[in-house]
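[step 3/7] fold_predict: job queued, chain A
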Amino acid sequence: MKDRKSLNKSISRPGKGKILILMALALIFAAAAAFGLSADLSDRLPDEKGSTDLFDFYEGASGAEFEDGSYRVTEDDPYLEFRGINGTYGGVFLRAKGTSASGADIPVSIYWTRSEGEPFVGALSASGFLKKGRSGVCLDLPDYPIHALRLDIDGDLIETGADLFTPNTVLKRTYGADFFRSFLIKGLLCFLIFFSAFIRFSLRPAREILTGKDRSSYNAGIDLVRILATVFVVASHLLNDTLMPTVQRGDQGYAFFRLIPSFTLCCNVLYVMISGASLLSPSEESIGTFYKKRLGRVLIPMIAYYAFYMLLGYPEEVFREGIGPGLRAIIGGLFAGRSSYVPHFWLIYVLLGLYVIAPFLRLLVSRLSEAQLALLVLLIFAANVFLTYLPVFGFYFGPEIAFSAWTGVFLLGYYLGTEHAKKLRIPLLIFGGSGILFSFLTLYFRPDLLETAATSAPLMWMSGMFFYLLLMRVGEFLRDRAVNGTAGSADAGKEYYGNPFIRSFAKYSYGMLLIHMYFMTKLILPCGWRYEAEHGHLKICMLLMLIAALLISYLFALIFDNAVETWRRRRT
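[step 4/7] structure written:
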């Protein structure tokens, strides 16, 4: 009750100076969001659309042929390629005749490269739809020079009637009225975020906001694993999805760019291991209490960040057809779990599924001996080996396994904290380290087998286990050193609450996981490639982009998480 009174008081009597500062920060952030964070401000509001026919750069096509200034579809799923552009454009406008006569939307994607010789990859792409009743769609391009374009149109265009289309480049998509409308909406939402965070900051000590409450049961190892998983997931999306596919054998740095993903790809496994270690420990709480205390910690922030992406990140695309269709698309995407706007959210849905069954798995492991639990994990691992690698040799594994690979990783995270696993720590570390080696060899010699060394593949179990055990041991060392002391240590015998920087980074790592993709695509990658193009130091550029993505994501999560917490506490 006291907190509620304090909260109401803070809402009714905020300092005028602080409110002005918050308004200024919110409007600056809204302006950056409205400009796309990477727009050319000197040419942001042209009077009319300028366009250039792409035919001068036409390289080839599949399923289409050039006819009278346009391209006519000859087969389903056509694509066009244009090379030698070497210019900066706002986007590509695709104009089609007879669009969606059958009432079906037609997915359209555009891929681009920065220099000659680069392949088209999913990280450098944009998607949209040719909508029913519309004559075209405009797809954004990045604000840096591009060398080549590939335009993909999916679906049976001959039956839908959209068999003739013309692609043109456009100077800009955002014009005066659209910009200011977007600016006002985003400004209001940003102000609410900053103001809500300010309320939260005013009600809690700064140390508690940054690091959480001090607890004598603090586990430094878990926080270290959580931080490493966050660094790995950002590095994975930055390096593996964007750069690794463009580096070919024989290129300078090929081995380096195959070594990095051989261990960063275990990031998802580390997150699931942490969850298993935290949720499967024996407890007397009921299933209802478990859901009430823990499920909301994952679900509520996910919904809040999803709303941010939809309302501030991509509102022009989401609400292009109107508020009603936009809201339906948002709700549908939230339930579907996969969206082109938040492709990295798939991991959160895996975690939510594991949270749902966690109380029942907790009952299971409480009735198993540690050796029996080890055997169960080993059986799931072996089944995963067969399912993953037999198809490489032309064979397939028929028996269905009751537990998925992710459930096995979930159980593994708990098992690695048992006494049984601690006795086997050295053999398990060696076994896990070999996973990193085999992942590197796979990616070096057979990059086409990436799926066998990613997500929940056995090699990622092994790599994740190595880092998990190593960092848990580091956490034990730090705690033992603080509690038992070393020669001349003034902290000997004191309660161990961990390093404040580690605790703060770990506390907001979940928000960083959710938001990093927004800043990477809107800000980090465009600026990073511009830096690389000017200076030519690719490895330094990748390091700078990684550091920038982590710092910006941390600062935003610090603000946004506390804004969400303000509203959550008001509801409770």
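[step 5/7] annotate
The mean pLDDT is 78.
The two ends are 11 Å apart (CA to CA).
exit 0
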